[in-house]
Amino acid sequence: MSSADLRAVLADLEPVQRHRVMDLVEASGISVAGWAIKQGGLPVANPSANPAYCYEWAFGAKGEPIALCVWHDGLLVDGDQLDYRGNLRQLALRLEAKATDRWEPAKHRNRAKSQARRARDFDIRCQDAWREKLPVRFILLKGEQADDSALGRDSSLVEFRRLDQEPWHLSQYDMMTGDFRFVRGFAVEESAVEAEVAGTDVYEQIALEQPYVDQFDVVEKLEKRELQGSSYVRSAQVRAEVLVRAAGLCEACGEQGFRMANGAIYLETHHVVPLSQSGPDVKWNVVAVCANDHRIAHFGENREGWRNHMIEHLSKCYPAADVSRRLSELVS
């Protein structure tokens, strides 16, 4: 398709109607059953306005399609392709800095914290799409997009939305930095990154595939050892999401994990309520910590206080999950 034809396609994709987010998410093949229920199981009067969902930037649970909210103005014609490029991980880092800046007003810190979580979630969905080679649906937005200088202080105003009927795919994703490039249409050939990975040994491949690793990555990929006996199988997806959430920093003490010889940053994942005590294998029960804090969690004289500190941290990360009550009930 010529550049002129692509520019015409791009113009046709511009949203001109006020579609509801919920309807477009459902049209993407993603369940919206949860939109009708409040925390605690009570029904929502207007599911499409449920704040636990309608302001999110990324949608789709495990086993479902992925849908991302993308500004139409960010789409580009590049040769014979339509593409979309960005880095939501770096955006999350800038927002997190504002969220912890004591000189910022409380309302700005709270907004920055919410926006940082959404940016992190967007980046995690990109990682999912990259690892599993999944097509992605774009919910295109039109309106007043907040400038970078207003991060955490103002929110963008969406006037129009539409669902692109054509899928998109990640043609490039840098697991170390978070830089991505989406291209409209299905993937038709192996990416350059895949070709590069195919020519590396297992140890080097870890750093190419993921910038953050834990003790199980080292065991599974370097030693190829199977978990047997009384060991518990842990979700690789949960561990990966937790490591990305921590972004290389111990969630207990705040210190950066050590950098391995291959460039990856090493932390250890830990179930706050152990699997042996019926702790769920979900991201709101798992933290990424340095090796020292991991030992404290198991053997420290104040390990109960340490655990409560981690429950408080996870409660802030996932306010809709009612973490404090659910985990406290398991250890009471």
Write up what this structure looks like.
- There is one protein chain.
- The longest helix has 27 residues, at 106-132.
- A hairpin with a 6-residue loop joins strand 1 (58-59) and strand 2 (66-71).
- It is built from 11 helices and 13 strands.
- Helix 9 packs across helix 10 (303-317).
- The protein is globular, with a radius of gyration of 21 Å.
- The protein is of the alpha+beta class.
- Mean pLDDT is 83; it is low at 189-208 and 219-232.
- The strands form 4 sheets. It has a 4-stranded mixed β-sheet. A 4-stranded antiparallel β-sheet has the order 3-4-8-7. Strands 9-11-10 form a 3-stranded mixed β-sheet.
- It starts with a helix and ends with a helix.
Bin the strand percentage.
15-25%
SSE order, as H and E?
HHEEEEHHEEEEHHEHHEEEEHHH
Give the termini separation.
63 Å
| Rg, Å, rounded | 21 Å
Query: What's the overall geometry?
Result: globular
| Biggest β-sheet: strands ordered side by side in the sheet | 1-2-5-6
- Any low-confidence stretches, pLDDT <50, length ≥5? 189-208, 219-232
Number of strands: 13
Helix content: 25-40%
Mean pLDDT: 83
Helix/sheet category: alpha+beta
Biggest pleated sheet: 4 strands, mixed
Count of helical regions? 11
Quick description:
With 332 residues, this protein is of the alpha+beta class. It has helices spanning 3-12, 21-27, 88-99, 106-132, 192-198, 202-209, 215-223, 236-246, 291-299, 303-317, 323-331; strands at residues 58-59, 66-71, 75-78, 81-86, 136-144, 157-163, 168-173, 180-184, 212-213, 258-259, 265-266, 268-271, 286-289.
